[in-house]
Amino acid sequence: MTRIKLFAFNAFVLLTLVFSETFAQRNNYIQLLSQENKWVDSVYNKLSRRQKIAQLFFVRAHTNLSRRYEDSVAKVIENEQVGGVVFFQGGPGRQAALTNQYQHLARVPLLIAMDGEWGLGMRLDSTLSYPYQMTLGAIQDNALIYNMGQQVAYDFKRLGMQINFGPDMDVNNNPDNPVINYRSFGDNKYNVAKKGIAYFKGMQDAGLLTTAKHFPGHGDTNVDSHLELPLLPFTRQRLDSLEEYPFREAIAAGINGIMIAHMSIPALDSTKNRPSTLSKKIITGILKDSLGFKGLVVSDAMEMKAVTKYYPGGEAELQAFLAGNDIIELSMNLDKSIQKIRRAVRKGQISMADFEAKVKKVLAAKYWAGLNSRKDVDPANLFADLNRQPAQQLIQQLSDAAVTLLKGDEQTVRLNPLQKTAIVSIGVDGYTVFQTELSKWTTNSHLFTVNKSTPVADLNRLLNILNQYNKVYVSIHDTRLRPASKLDYSAGVKEFIAALSAHSNVVTTVFANPYTIAGLPGIEKSSALIACYQMSAELQRSAVKVITGQLKPTGKLPVSVNVFFPNGAGVGL
After folding, report:
1. What is the DSSP letter of 282?
2. Of 15, 90, 256, 380, which sits with the fewest C-beta atoms within 10 Å of its C-beta?
3. How much of the chain exceeds pLDDT 70, in percent?
């Protein structure tokens, strides 16, 4: 071995040992909770009772709003000394600067959190978005999802964050679910559990706190809890065997935290209009006592209508505290909430031992995440670090592994570069990545676009034109920020897709929520049908790889779409 190679090898070994030693002392947050911790005890003993209660509260922060808004958050942090901040929309550079500012105002370092189910790109511009969890649900190699967890953890920590409110471990068995849907790994509880565990283990092994959500399961509802209190009308047996299954498996696998859903569940708590977030029967009785969960219990956002409609003026926060939540997210009335909880503690509505354990659980999370020796976020090379090439390559790998061939074979799918070929993208106003990439592989192709409401007369003319082509490759796109289970196409465009699919030379690829296939009757008649789950540039390139023979599709449908395409559908080439 040459001296240069030997040096590189030794450096790698040294870094590996340092990494291993760094996380060996905090590789299991749950175990840490049962151990004596001098830092935690020291901090706890220095706090007043009001300050201890404030450690349980996380407040909202943005970097895409006004300076006045940012200053108002700073004032709350300085005056109340809350436990943490949850960042929402903005940009990474601005968030790094604001994180440093906010941390300097906190006498106990803040836990900085974000909902990053598909990485920083879920909230921040100029950052990477990994595939949606529904897309990941199609992947057969869970090691790729573990690797994604590692990369997401790097991004979070590089930006000074310690906790990801993810993964979503709801079983999405309702196609009309308006709030979970594509955020879920699918409708198979075993697949959801395995994928969720792979994802959070990747993050936790890289030193990031994680939170599985939304216990006991938000997948089978057609009501958005941001707007109203959803009802889960199922039996205890059904909930135990289906909705709770992924969470039970996550607990056994060592999940750090679990977020509670805002849902009315009469089989578990018959109190009228009581969200599960405020239910001691559900949180303490089931999650903690029956399932034995010892980690962080996090409320869903307390500003959501499912809670505020029935429990105003700090009452919701008090009930969430008494029910067993350790972290109370986004209170609408922080001062009143702290006052009410302080009064409840003074009156003995919670034992001092339980109160102390609750606060120390949050402090222990800060210690586990390294906040006992906090450093400022370094702005140097931040954009380059968050957009590094290995992460981009992994996104393409994940996309390649998700592509699902629902119908067809090698002969029907494969592009003949010499044939007269039409490449049609639907639902868009300009040429797509799919079109430009696929056209590079042909010598005789023409590109066409159809927007969401192209007039029927124009569609009929296009149908006549396409009859002149030997092969037609159709791509269906959902350009909306939140891809719903039904496409927002006109009836005429949907009829055009059905008419086109009836031709024997048409290959259709869907870059949209897989449930949208059920709303396009006739699409199953395409000679080949490929599911690509979302409109990302990476998945469009993945589809081109399949069509040009560079990639064999290995994905399996993670949800049941209709009788033609049930869960697990997927043809190998």
Report:
1. I
2. 380
3. 95
Q: What angle do CA 451, 489, 403 make, to 5 degrees?
A: 85
Closest CA to 492 of 533, 469, 458: 458
> What SS3 state is found at 233?
coil
Q: Which two tokens stand for residue 493?
A: 């465009």
Six-digit token string for 463? 């149908």
Asked if residue 180 lies in contact with residue 551, where contact means CB atoms within 8 angstroms, the answer is no
Predicted confidence at residue 18, as pLDDT, reads: 38
Under the banding of pLDDT at 50, 70 and 90, the label for residue 491 is very high
Contact at 8 Å (CB) between 276 and 282? yes
Given a cut of 70, is residue 148 above it in pLDDT?
A: yes
Tell me the one-letter amino acid at 380. Answer: A
Helix axes 38-46, 352-368, angle to 10 degrees: 120
Instruction: Return the closest-CA partner of residue 426 out of 488, 365, 482, 378.
Output: 488
Report the 10 Å Cβ neighbour count for 242: 18
Reference 260, options 236, 287, 239, 240; nearest CA is 287
Q: Is the pLDDT of residue 26 over 60?
A: no
Average pLDDT over residues 478-482: 93
CA-based max dimension of the chain: 82
Write the CB contacts of 523 (distance below 8 Å, at least 6 apart in sequence): 497, 498, 501, 508, 510, 517, 529
Q: How far is CA 46 from the centre of its chain?
A: 37
Per-residue pLDDT reduced to its tens digit, 178-228: 999 999 999 999 999 999 999 999 999 999 999 999 999 999 998 888 889
Distance CA 269, CA 282 (A): 7
Backbone φ, ψ for residue 359 (5° rounding)? -65, -45
How far is Cα 397 from Cα 545, in angstroms, rounded to an integer? Answer: 12
Alpha helix segments (H runs only) across 331-381: 334-346, 352-368
